[in-house]
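Protein in question filed below.

…
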Amino acid sequence: PTLATEVAGLQERIASVAGSAVTAIQAVYVPADDFTDPAVTTITGHMDCVIMLSRAQAAEGFYPAIDPLGSSSMLLDPLVVGEDHYQTAEAVRQALARFRELSDIISLLGVEELGAADRLIVKRARRLQRFLTQPFMVTEAFTGMPGASVPLSETLSGCRAILAGETDGWSESSLYMVGTLEDARRKEAAASVSDIPNAGAVA
């Protein structure tokens, strides 16, 4: 027996059978962050969905610390989720992927050295990163921020608005750890008012 055959045998035992099915949630250790490791590729090859946790995301304070480019799902198909959902997700992934490609250039030369089109992608990708964070209800006592549960439709419409440039003039922090885009809009408006000298003074 080989690793591949043993893993395949185990996965077959938890597959659907007539009249019933078993959903398996499996935690996979990635040695030295090597995603080409035979054990990792063999196991993930049997999965319908992969959620990849990211140390880099966690280090930047982006929670949930999930890598949207390394994660995947067989259900992200226009026939399953609809054309609008699929196209929005692909546009978000493309923006984040381009931002990642440019990260080395940015760290060496600065964002000013990029072309106008790439600077715009970077601006919107950074806002997408922050918009896709979410305050957890289980951490309210530690963070002081109320948890948020956001409907899928609100997340998609928010991503489309960011990609369309509706938040280009906003502070990035307004999109961090909020629920819907409307929550971010209120946060941005409040920050703008607080920046006005004597905004709270009564004439």
